[in-house]
Design a protein that fits this description.
Strand content: 5-15%
CATH class: Alpha Beta
Distance between the termini: 56 Å
Strand order of the largest sheet: 3-2-1-4-5
Number of domains: 1
Number of strands: 5
CATH topology: Rossmann fold
CATH architecture: 3-Layer(aba) Sandwich
Low-confidence stretches: 1-9
Helix content: 40-55%
Radius of gyration: 17 Å
Mean pLDDT: 93
Number of helices: 8
Length: about 230
């Protein structure tokens, strides 16, 4: 009887938002470790390094044995603009120059858009969970990465889907920093050489943007070498 229950739990499916970055890749490995079959959802919203991110996400999905790799293009976020990630007229600043304000790399209300798509996909596929790699305690402080936002969106899911639909929004990193996430991934054997974090470049990471800075700091604090190439090395 217990074996049957374990088997049933392991048959559950989760939609995992997979950008191809360090956090979302670790997230996907956490979801698999928890027994979920994975539907990898990759979203192109006009970000500068989309081609590289997509390549990494496809590779990770393949390594994980994802049951589906689902791609969506929402270029309207680039047309809306107001973010250095999507508007080439807004520079991606070096980490040292960002100060204490909300970074220019914040994409207005992006996670609500991504989670809406993930909810549609999860309900259509009969998935029991959605995993998102948001972390409010990291450097950015993006408002749509906070625990309060995740709790509010869970209510949106509950009230905006069929009565018989039960989808849990999972944000396991919301109280973790980059180093803690990295250590979690190292314990799970995450292939970080297949991931990409740089906001600027797609060949050799710049090493100076916020994403590069905090990635390097995490690897330094964890005491392991970062396997991706940097242009300033």
């Amino acid at each position: 009887m217990k074996a049957a229950l374990v088997q049933a739990a392991r048959a559950q499916t989760a939609v995992v938002l997979l950008s191809g970055g360090m956090d979302s890749t670790t997230l996907a490995y956490v979801a698999r470790d928890r027994g979920y079959r994975i539907i990898a959802l990759h979203v192109n919203y006009g970000q500068r390094t989309e081609g590289k991110e997509r390549q990494c996400a496809q590779r990770i999905a393949s390594l994980l044995g994802a049951v589906e790799f689902f791609e969506v293009d929402i270029g309207y976020l680039a047309r809306i603009g107001a973010s250095a990630l999507t508007d080439r007229a807004i520079p991606v600043k070096d980490h040292a120059d960002t100060g204490g304000d909300l970074p220019a790399t914040y994409v207005p209300f992006r996670n609500a858009n991504l989670l809406a798509i993930a909810t549609s996909l999860a309900e259509a596929r009969g998935a029991e969970a959605i995993f998102i790699g948001a972390q409010a305690s990291d450097y950015s402080g993006y408002p749509d990465c906070r625990e309060e936002f995740m709790e509010a969106f869970q209510q949106v899911i509950d009230r905006g889907t069929r009565e018989t639909t039960r989808i849990r929004l999972m944000a396991p990193f919301v109280h973790m920093n980059k180093t803690e996430i990295l250590r979690t991934g190292l314990a799970l054997g995450v292939p970080y050489r297949e991931t990409w974090s740089c906001y600027r470049n797609s060949d050799r990471a710049c090493g100076r943007c916020g994403a590069c800075h905090f990635r390097r700091e995490a690897f330094r604090e964890a005491g392991v070498p970062d396997p991706i190439p940097y242009g300033d090395e």
